């Protein structure tokens, strides 16, 4: 049966954002078929942040206020999905053993590690956005980080086994390794990099390091990935890219 690309993109947007994309008239695609489109979900999110930064600059608001508004817009557009993952992942790392760490991550309450992680994520993200120059290159830089950080979700899905027998991490990885699903996001990133230049290459290297650090930590402490791990990978790598680009652009 022929795959339906547009419905798969819509499902990816539903999974990764809170943007209004309508409903399905027929059966929804399987998430395992739609994961190739996860990086594409970063495109409208990057445009939203860029528009907010541009609007704040046009109104003459202080750069840090613009940065905070940009982070706020991103949180609203994603429903705080990845921030929640980072908080749960950070809390879970304080557990005594694998079972307790996974139990803590499933607990809806946020502990001290999670709160501190969120403060650092919001603070670093806002400060980095505040340092971005105005102009189209900023939009392209934000787009690069948005696409690559969501491509990282696919990479970690194929790199690490699911740490649980249920949950988003297990569901998304249930189809097995399929590196062809990396291709659309990878090609889009390669198209953007030349327009960002050397700062974009530097950002990619640091983002790769952030992905590796979070992924290796999850492998060592949890034995694999979960939905919270994937959220932490996305957010940490995106903010890492912002920080590099804020200094290099």
List keywords for this structure.
249 residues; mainly alpha; 0% strand; globular
Number of domains: 1
Major β-sheet profile: none
Overall geometry: globular
Low-confidence stretches: none
Percent strand: under 5%
Mean pLDDT: 92
State the separation between the terminal residues, measured CA to CA. Answer: 46 Å
N-to-C order of helices and strands: HHHHHHHHHHHH
> What does the radius of gyration come to?
18 Å
Percent helix: over 70%
What structural category arises from helix and sheet content? mainly alpha
Find the count of extended strands (DSSP E, 2+ residues).
0
Q: What is the number of helices?
A: 12
Brief description of this entry?
With 249 residues, the protein is mostly helical.
List the helices and strands and how they pair.
Blueprint: H1 5-16, H2 31-34, H3 42-58, H4 63-78, H5 81-92, H6 98-106, H7 112-130, H8 136-159, H9 167-173, H10 183-196, H11 198-222, H12 227-248
Helix pairs in contact: 3-4, 3-8, 4-7, 5-6, 5-7, 5-12, 7-12, 8-10, 8-11, 8-12, 9-12, 10-11, 11-12
Explained architecture:
By secondary structure, the protein is mostly helical. The protein has one domain. The chain is 73% helix and 0% strand. The chain has twelve helices and no strands. The protein has helices at 5-16, 31-34, 42-58, 63-78, 81-92, 98-106, 112-130, 136-159, 167-173, 183-196, 198-222, 227-248. α8 (136-159) runs antiparallel to α10 and α8 packs antiparallel against α12 (227-248). The longest helix has 25 residues, at 198-222. It is globular and about 50 Å long. The model has no long low-confidence stretch (mean pLDDT 92).
């Amino acid at each position: 049966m022929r795959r339906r690309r547009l419905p798969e993109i819509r499902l990816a947007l539903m999974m990764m954002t809170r943007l209004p994309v309508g409903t399905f008239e027929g059966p929804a695609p399987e998430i395992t078929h739609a994961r190739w489109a996860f990086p594409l979900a970063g495109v409208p999110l990057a445009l939203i942040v860029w528009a907010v930064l541009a609007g704040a600059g046009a109104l003459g608001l202080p750069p840090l206020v613009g940065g905070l508004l940009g982070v706020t817009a991103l949180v609203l557009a994603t429903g705080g999905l990845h921030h929640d993952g980072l908080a749960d992942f950070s809390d879970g790392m304080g557990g005594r053993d694998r079972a307790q760490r996974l139990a803590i991550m499933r607990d809806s309450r946020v502990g001290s590690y999670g709160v501190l992680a969120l403060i650092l994520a919001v603070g670093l993200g806002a400060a980095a956005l505040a340092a971005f120059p105005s102009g189209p290159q900023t939009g392209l830089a934000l787009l690069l980080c948005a696409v690559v950080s969501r491509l990282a979700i696919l990479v970690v899905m194929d790199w690490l086994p699911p740490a649980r027998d249920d949950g988003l991490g297990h569901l998304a990885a249930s189809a097995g390794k399929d590196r062809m699903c990396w291709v659309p996001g990878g090609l889009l990133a390669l198209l953007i990099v030349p327009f960002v230049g050397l700062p974009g290459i530097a950002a990619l290297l640091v983002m790769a390091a952030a992905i590796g650090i979070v992924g290796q930590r999850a492998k060592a402490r949890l034995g694999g990935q979960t939905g919270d791990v994937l959220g932490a990978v996305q957010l940490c790598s995106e903010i890492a890219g912002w920080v590099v680009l804020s200094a290099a652009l």
